[in-house]
Amino acid sequence: MYYKLIFSLSLFIMIFSKAQKNNPALSVPATDEHFEIKIIDEYRNLEDLKDQNTIDWMRSQTEYSNSLLNTIPNRNYYLEKRLELDKRQGYSISDLKIISNDKYFYLKRNAGEKTAKAYCRQGFEGKEELLYDPANFNNNLGGKHNYIINLISPSWDGSKIVISLTEKGKELSEVIIMDISTKKIYPERITNTNPSNIGGIKWLEDNSGFLYVYYPVIDITSEQFRKDTQSILYKIGDDPKKLNNVFSNSNNPDLKISREEFPAVLAFNQDDKYYIGILVDAEDFRKTFIIDKKDLLNGKNNWQLLYDKDSKVYSIKLSGDDIYFLSGYNSPNYKLCRSSVKTKDFKNPEVLVPEKKDEVITQYVLTKDGIYYATTKNGVEAKLYFYKDGKEISIKLPYVSGNISLQSKGKDYSDIWVNCSGWANEEQRFKYNLITNTFKPENLAPLTEYPEFKDIIVEETTIKSYDGTEVPLSLIYNKNLKRDGKNPVLIQSYGAFGTSFSPFFARSYLVWASQGGILAIAHVRGGGEKGVQWHIDGQKTKKPNSWKDMIACTEYLIEKKYTSPKKVAIWGASAGGITIGRAMIERPDLYGAVIVEAGVLNTTRYEGIGENGFKEYGNPNNLDEFKGLLEMDAYQHLKKGIKYPATLITSGINDPRVASWVPTKFAAKLLSYNTSKNPVLLKVDYEGGHGKDIPVAQAYSTLSDIFAFAFWQLGHPDYQPKENTKK
């Protein structure tokens, strides 16, 4: 019987492998010319996701990928382990909101549940009350649906709550409104919105309605998707189809809002005298307007410019006529400043906390007692400070933390909570008492023992990149690990949009390390770990720094005997696909496996990522920036006759950010050009999108495939198929 199984397995793999090789994607080339530079796109036809040939090829590749992944022993180990760890913890809490009357609103998912439900309680020790289960949501379309809650927003007085629901990774949501006392769901539903990502829900002062951002077109395949969005003022009970547009390019032509910018309205405190209108795009600093609250509510349209992008204002907050903000103006690590509605002086404001040399100010909150703010060094070492009346003090945290987050009830209250976490430290929530300088634990989720992780340590270091720049590198591994060059290493990286890869309690990373691997995070240029300049030095024409930093991190790990060539896997998602894709192409000899999730891999075709991406990646209408786009385009840099590493490329069919044809084209071309026998797998999730807003088991399953594929290709004995299917 055993030999029959082996024979069947071998025959199965052979048949499917041959099927993949005999099933290349149809190539219908197109040639574009920009600034007299001709670009041949061999798989332009795959951009038509409604073409049957494209549909069939994507499905056949996904089926093949699943068949091959199924031959890996322990393919589901990470899925099962994460579910086991969830069961041990019991439940998890997220999206906590605390309003002025000390009422808590949050999402809670019990172990074994697919998705989180909405709950509330009165104060930290109050009795928990279930508000809403997304399983009860019915959009009257029939069929199978697995809706998840991706945002909750209670009214100022806690009498009502907005619940945003989505499914299958679409991110675009339907919004319902609940009366808390009766649990009644109002009959009106808000559609065509994405509050968990753009604009949120901003309640009116009298709790009678709210502001949100409306998408006129929600078909992600349409050229009009993400364009001409509008801020809508909605009053509860009104017909949601009758839009009261208060801030947009059509409502405010004099403001010169582009079709690609998202005009969102901000509200900070119930008693604010003004509304702030911000044009959301891909840049750190945004053009911003102001209007008297009474004027907007009375139908007036007199928005005024508050500041332009060149003022470099970030994280604005209102308190009466005072405007607090972080300034990046001549201060790449930010300084904490104050201006006013009257003076509107943002280039020469009152500086409350000057820029710090080696620390980046990341966040701050206003309280009755003063201002609390947090900093990080290299994106991985957090500190907490308190400022009042020209003086600041350093507050010692309960334990050394890689990352902290701050939460308060508002400017009129003393309450302040600090969440501390790290790569190997479970997140803990504390309430801080300024008078006694003490932290009181107020964890909403239970702390859990993880004896299997007791020997896992974290090493924070910096390495020199090709140009001498010091790049932070985080390493997670077993303290008993030998530096003999034989350890499987998985390096994850992002490096875009000024987003820091901040430490969090990464159970999956710890599971990888507990199996003898090293998990590394390369904090490459393009992120925000070292401030504004770190971002600038990894975008547009400077984007090569991102993948060159990744290569330098890999070489460091090899030089220091942590690992060796071909024992390294690299992993990135979304914009991190540029870093991963170009590192693989520039140095295929360094890597044993490459994983790209929903990756930006074809930047010369901005149609796949949206025109907002111009501001991060480059404008194709500018010669220098177009050359930068071409340089970072992994798809265009694939070369025939090269032996590329084993590659797992994933996508979600409902992805609203990176069209699923982008990874598909890359996979098709890589399969055609690659001369190695290493597998090239394209796996499309037909129940997912950009990797978020999906049931937890679905997310764990994707992660399980990534780790199993990496361990398989890096030679871990527990992940080798019975027959050698790698070659």
From TrEMBL:
Keyword line: Hydrolase, Protease, Serine protease, Signal
CC per GO annotation: cytosol
The Peptidase S9 prolyl oligopeptidase catalytic domain, residue ranges: 510-715
Pfam family, one: Peptidase_S9_N
Biological process, per Gene Ontology: proteolysis
Domain Peptidase S9A N-terminal stretches: 30-438
EC number assigned by the record: 3.4.21.26
Class of enzymatic activity (EC top level): hydrolase
Signal peptide, first to last residue: 1-19
Catalytic activities: Hydrolysis of Pro-|-Xaa >> Ala-|-Xaa in oligopeptides
MF terms (GO), sorted A to Z: oligopeptidase activity; serine-type endopeptidase activity
Record PANTHER family: PROLYL ENDOPEPTIDASE (PTHR42881)
Protein name, UniProt field: prolyl oligopeptidase
